[in-house]
Amino acid sequence: MSYDVIVIGSGPGGYAAAIRCAQLGLRTAVVERAELGGTCLNWGCIPTKALLKSAEVYRYASHAAEYGVDVAPETVRADLPAMVARSRAVAEQMSRGIDFLLKKNGVEILVGRGSLTEVPHTVEVTAEDGAAVRYEAQHIILATGARPRELPSIPVDGKRVITSRQALTLTELPQSMAVIGSGAIGAEFATFFSTLGTRVTIVEYAPNLAPLEDEEISKLLERSFRKAKIAVMTATEVKGVKATETGCEVFVAGKKGEQVLEAEVVLSAVGIAANIEQIGLEQAGVRVDRGKVPVDEHYRTSAEGVYAIGDLIPTPALAHVATAEAIHCAEFIAGRRPEPVDYGVIPSCIYTTPEVASVGLTEAQAAAQGHALRIGRFPYTASGKATAAGNRDGMVKLVFDAETDKLLGAHLFGLNVTEMVAEPTLGMMLGASAEDLVRTIHAHPTMSEGLMEAAAAAQGEAIHL
User: How far apart are CA 126 and CA 112, in angstroms?
Assistant: First the structure.
């Protein structure tokens, strides 16, 4: 059987590529060996957010008296198995939604492990029972995603030393946990387990938590973690982890020299590794460089007719980036002339409490590029909506070019900022200035007023500061 396009992998990049190809009139199939929706939907973004929502409800219930609600504190209990069950149900519901969307758009689903072959324009799909069928396609899109990265010094056993995959399905709440790595995965799980009562220590090799974020925001995140009684160790290297009968010993070296931390469970959150194995890259002549597949601006690999998107390639490993790449790739295959993805305007979100969101250049990056800067800041303590919500820990920080007035970056910390970051992202896409943001009327009271106020602060015109 032959198709115009076969997509290997059904994550945010894979299913978006398949649906867009089908919308453009191409006969399309998607190959998936596990759950539709890939890691993000089933074992990453979505179930993690479901757990974090449960933790938020628990936190509000525990502090109900602060909002004038009479709830006996002794009746508030975190039911981890129930939270996990809800999280899994949310993921399954979303996976069924992807199945519906694929079928609605006429995309055929081929169940099994997909791989390239030595024959050009051919994909072999191997079922669970070992039966293999070959399909032809003029274009093949690789969207096989990634998995948690494992380091030799942190041997994962799935019980004492776990990755995010096992963290999503724990049935008993650990008394203590060491989280290694403070990117989105590590920071979010640190928030979740700490909220439920686990004693959490987060260990980060870089000088600051969430090291890709603006340093000022990173320091606010560290302060909030310490306020939540999460122990923070930055500029600290993990030398090794040893599982014992009762837990783990974590050997670290940092500002205070070498130490041994004890924790019931260790969560390794040290990044991801692209799924480049067993998909026939070598047989098909697809070049690999440092664990990633190099591509051009249209996501063409070194093999004719083979494309790659998402975590497989050396671009930001984010679901929304994979989706943008997927749509570009599909439209290019269909003969359109899509604009290249602008990697300078990619929003990033961390769903801690408070949240972190950013887009564009950090203050340090903008200065290093030679921009003369104007910085606008607006603290949540001056926000009526944040005060009413009882969440005054936060700040909006905007970075502008002092000469052109153009917005170069936005860095947000606080309640709802992952929803607010879309405005500066759109602003940067359209070349917005500080003046544009100041003159845009924002509804009151809202958290998003902070963007207008921060822009006004950069011009020395803030009303509420």
Answer: 5
- Please provide the size of the chain in residues: 465
Contact 30, 11 (CB under 8 A): no
Residue 435 one-letter amino acid: E
User: Phi and psi at residue 389, in whole multiples of 5°?
Assistant: -80, -10
Question: In the beta sheet, which residues pair with residue 242?
Answer: 249
Phi, psi angles (nearest 5°) of residue 333: -60, -35
State the residue for tokens 């509000």.
60
Active site residue 121: no
Strand pairing of 161-162 and 265-268?
A: parallel
Collect all residues with Cβ–Cβ distance below 8 Å to 200 and sequence separation of at least 6: 176, 177, 178, 179, 190, 193, 194, 230, 231
DSSP 111-163: ESEEEE-SSTTEEEEE-TTS-EEEEEEEEEEE---EEE---TTS---SSSEE-
CB 185 within 8 A of CB 349: no
The single residue of 63, 320, 411, 444 carrying the catalytic annotation is 444
pTM, two decimal places: 0.95
Strands 132-142 and 2-8, by their bridges, are: parallel
The tens-digit pLDDT sequence of the chain (465 residues) is 899 999 999 999 999 999 999 999 999 999 999 999 999 899 999 999 999 999 999 999 999 999 999 998 788 999 999 999 999 999 999 999 999 999 999 999 999 999 999 999 999 999 999 999 999 999 999 999 999 999 999 999 999 999 999 999 999 999 999 999 999 999 999 999 999 999 999 999 999 999 999 999 999 999 999 999 999 999 999 999 999 888 999 999 998 899 999 999 999 999 999 999 999 999 999 999 999 999 999 999 999 999 999 999 999 999 999 999 999 999 999 999 999 999 999 999 999 999 999 999 999 999 999 999 999 999 999 999 999 999 999 999 999 999 999 999 999 999 999 999 999 999 999 999 999 999 999 999 999 999 999 999 999 999 998
* Amino acid at site 154: I
Nearest 5°: phi and psi at 260? -120, 115
Largest Cα–Cα separation, the chain: 69
CA 404 to chain centre: 32
**Close Cβ partners of 85 (under 8 Å, ≥ 6 residues apart):** none
